[in-house]
User: Which sequence fits this backbone?
């Protein structure tokens, strides 16, 4: 039995029949216009597979059995030119490289084939197709009785957002008949749209309108799928004022123009080009934030690789700040817009670029007694920026040449390990006899250090909080905090430092381990100076290196 339906004034294909029948063609009153409905083409349209690429978006399920004409006819039938469009969404923080598109459909009122097919992807504009994102006119897709698989000549790069896929067959009615884009019985995202600018079908839908009201059918969407790859770039590192110039010290200061050098990782298998643009440079009120060079080029980044703009092309950002410091701890923000593309001539321009990256730029000059010329300046700025220290005394100074006490060491270690927001548990006064927990600011930190098996004190049930930390003791403190109490100490060789002979000294193996991790190079002359105390300036270096503290990025 054959079931058929005629929709007045519109070219509609109805499928879902039993058996394998020849098509029944019903023409308009003149017998010459594309106003027919056709039945008898089987239960469902075949859906070819996309070649090799991964499926990015798929709504080829729930075939409604109805196809809607989307066709550019010959001049005689220009009034019937029509096209359909359906939307899809690229998720947040994601960029797609679309390389293949599948659109199930059928021929009717003729056997086809289409001479060519126009494929366009539009940006969304208030729920309608807006500006063109990618255009592929007059394509010749793989054609399986009206179901098309397009291999795009250049990938379409799409950032997060909503887009519209528009597919229109270019075919003469007189020789090939009509092509219908198969529809879907359920809706995803917004309903599909359709238009017939010349209103040859008499629907009144001369501009894009929801398909169902125009066509007097219940199918709300078209069938299609998109294939390709997800472009994943992640920020990897940031260098500011990198070495190379006479005054380059790795820290941004008020009044100096510096290079800003981000690094990005390509987390996909394939190579992509990456450019960037600074869209905003701002910070607390008062100073003036100036962008001197707003463009960066990272070149072509191989799959799985990381690149920075300086090494790749020497084309990086440049900025400076003028005015007075608004606060002791001063951070600015630089917003970078990454723009990936494929290293292919003629590539479609990226649309709706990926999510911008906001880089935090710490501004140096935080302490009056730590000038930019100080040898450990960058390390002091790093532990201050990370919240490991607030300075000494009232906080305006750091006291870089003062020696570190065992009490101060407890705070330095735990904040470096666990972050600036870390707070130790309440103090009991039951751990060390010289740490009574009667209001001393360091007491909870000292007990916490002991409870984590980082220290056993200085002997006799004491911690000796006011004693200075020697460089030998520091090696144990650092490595136990870094690795935990289960840390397996490597053997000692006696070949690293002249004054660490490994002849039974209890700290010797710890000192060599510290050197082997690249945390210390000694005190000069091939020595380590294990009995020397540590200054606060030196401690900034040890903490930064041990706990991989970053002043900038990622």
Assistant:
């Amino acid at each position: 039995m054959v079931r058929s339906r005629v929709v007045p004034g519109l070219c509609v294909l109805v499928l879902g029949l039993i058996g394998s029948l020849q098509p029944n063609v019903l023409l308009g009153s003149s017998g010459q216009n594309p106003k027919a409905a056709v039945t008898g083409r089987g239960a469902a349209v075949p859906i070819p597979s996309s070649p090799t690429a991964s499926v990015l978006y798929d709504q080829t399920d729930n075939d409604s059995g109805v196809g809607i004409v989307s066709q550019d006819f010959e001049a005689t039938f220009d009034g019937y030119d029509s096209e359909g469009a359906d939307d899809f969404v690229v998720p947040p923080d994601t960029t797609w490289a679309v390389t293949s598109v599948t659109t199930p459909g059928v021929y009717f009122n003729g056997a086809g084939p289409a001479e060519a097919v126009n494929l366009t992807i539009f940006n969304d504009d208030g729920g309608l197709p807006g500006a063109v994102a990618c255009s592929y006119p007059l394509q010749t897709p793989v054609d399986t009785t009206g179901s098309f698989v397009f291999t795009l000549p250049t990938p379409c790069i799409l950032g997060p957002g909503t887009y519209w896929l528009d597919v229109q067959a270019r075919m003469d009615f007189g020789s090939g008949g009509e092509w219908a884009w198969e529809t879907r019985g359920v809706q995803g995202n917004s309903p599909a749209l359709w238009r017939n600018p010349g209103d040859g079908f008499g629907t009144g839908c001369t501009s894009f309108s929801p398909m169902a009201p125009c066509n007097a059918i219940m199918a709300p969407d078209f069938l299609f799928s998109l294939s390709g790859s997800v472009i994943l770039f992640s920020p990897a590192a940031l260098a500011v004022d990198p070495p190379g110039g006479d005054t380059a010290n790795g820290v941004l200061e008020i009044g100096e123009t510096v290079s800003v050098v981000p690094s990005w990782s390509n987390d996909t298998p394939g190579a992509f080009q990456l450019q960037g643009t600074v869209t905003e440079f701002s910070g607390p009120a008062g100073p003036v934030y100036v962008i001197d060079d707003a463009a960066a080029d990272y070149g072509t980044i191989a799959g799985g690789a990381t690149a920075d703009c300086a090494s790749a092309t020497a084309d990086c950002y440049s900025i400076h700040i003028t005015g007075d410091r608004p606060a002791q701890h001063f951070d600015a923000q630089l917003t970078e817009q990454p723009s990936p593309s494929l290293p292919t001539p003629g590539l479609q321009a990226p649309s709706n670029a990926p999510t911008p990256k906001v880089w935090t730029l710490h501004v140096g000059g935080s302490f009056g007694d730590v000038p930019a010329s100080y040898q450990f300046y960058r390390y002091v700025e790093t532990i201050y920026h990370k919240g490991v220290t607030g300075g000494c005394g009232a906080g305006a100074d750091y006291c870089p040449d003062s020696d570190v006490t065992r009490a101060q060491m407890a705070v330095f270690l735990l904040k470096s390990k666990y972050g600036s927001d870390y707070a130790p548990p309440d103090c009991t006064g039951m751990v060390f006899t010289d740490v009574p927990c009667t209001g001393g600011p360091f007491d909870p930190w000292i007990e916490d250090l002991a409870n984590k098996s980082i220290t056993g004190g200085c002997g006799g049930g004491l911690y000796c909080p006011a004693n200075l930390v020697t460089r030998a003791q520091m090696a144990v403190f650092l490595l136990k905090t870094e690795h935990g109490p289960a840390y397996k100490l490597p053997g000692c060789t006696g070949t690293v430092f002249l004054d660490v002979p490994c002849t039974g000294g209890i700290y010797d193996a710890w000192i060599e381990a510290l050197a082997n991790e690249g945390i210390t190079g000694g005190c000069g002359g091939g020595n380590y100076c294990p009995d020397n105390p540590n200054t606060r300036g030196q401690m900034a270096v040890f903490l930064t290196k041990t706990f991989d503290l970053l002043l900038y990025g990622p």
Residues 1-31, 35-43, 345-350 have pLDDT under 50 and may be disordered. The CA atoms of residues 143 and 149 lie 7 Å apart. The longest helix spans residues 406-418. The chain has nine helices and 28 strands.
